[in-house]
Amino acid sequence: MGRVSVNAVSKVYDGDIVAVDEVSAEIRDGEFVTIVGPSGSGKSTLLRMIAGLEDITDGTVEIGGEAVNGVQPQDRGVAMVFQNYALYPHMTARKNMSYGLKLTTDLPQDEIDAKVEEAAEMMGIEKQLDKKPGSLSGGQQQRVATGRAIVRDPEVFLFDEPLSNLDAKLRLHMRTELQQLQDELGTTAIYVTHDQEEAMTMSDRIIVLNEGEIQQIGTPEEIYGEPANQFVADFVGSPSMNTFPVELRDDVLVGTAFEYTLPETYRERVSKRASDGEELVLGIRPEHVDVVETGGQNTIRASLDVREPVGSDNFLYLSVGDEECCVRVSGERQPEEGTTLTMRFDPSHLHLFERDSGRNLLYGAHDQTRASEAPQESMVSTEG
Ligand code: ADP
Question: Global pTM?
Fold first, then answer.
């Protein structure tokens, strides 16, 4: 069973560099979980502790229900694919893939050969098996490195930024290839990346790390739609969520260039969590801002600086006082640059962060407000 439990795991280097700080997470058998965060957030260190390549300062790691602190990497049932592939340059692809098995198992040669052939077929590198890494492309080297992990028949795959050395197009292709492979094999996968888009597109669930601490664990939809704090909100999504500093006065959020009356549904929750006069940050994603014809309560005037066509959509970059707001509209809407537009925020996708801690005061408050977006589903559930 490829279940992985990380229990209050910490890593302290040189007595005072806390790389990973009491991280706990449960990764289910067969799940594809991505650890994402900026450079230096502790992703690799955490993965290497799971792999057994780094001592654990505190806490326990369990694989398949067994504590593995102190167990050698080759005895943990894991196989790791590294960013730099870590292939032996003087060995053929075939030898690179079989070497580990020869070293750590007593499988007969014909069985090893069969495993290598099978993995090569899976990765589409049958014709490259007798070439050395130097004469393979980046994508092919990546496939050999993955093939080498497959032949070990692990309970858990550990990927450390495996696609970051590839060009953008190949990276996109390899994402799908790795996902399909994991799907086919059903093997638990823990995948480290600094690329939020990679995390969003590949994972069953995402662990967001910052400064060695977990910020949030959730499905891509939860992480995107219900960020626990401003760090997660900023880190995930491109262009980023729009944010405006505001002050809470009664039920009104007073910004530097606009006032926004808090929707009724959020008032009780906010009044319990924030005091009058408190400094907060209002957040809204570009696709949750609408450009409307007429003004009225909670509409905001803004001047259009730049209109940027992106595929079927237009990104509008607007100025609201000294602040910028990006709005995503359909490509058919082409307002003139320099004109003044009226914006309306979709209240069911509003976020409100504490200025100091970044905590999202509306975390978990959107379920009801967004229910109206799926009328068919809710009809089914009331009937059923
Ligand atoms: P990420 O993979 O998210 O980029 P790392 O896990 O590599 O982050 O590093 C987390 C923190 O631990 C960083 O501050 C890094 O400088 C530090 N660190 C990593 N490895 C070592 C080491 N061998 N000795 C000292 N500090 C280290």
Answer: 0.91
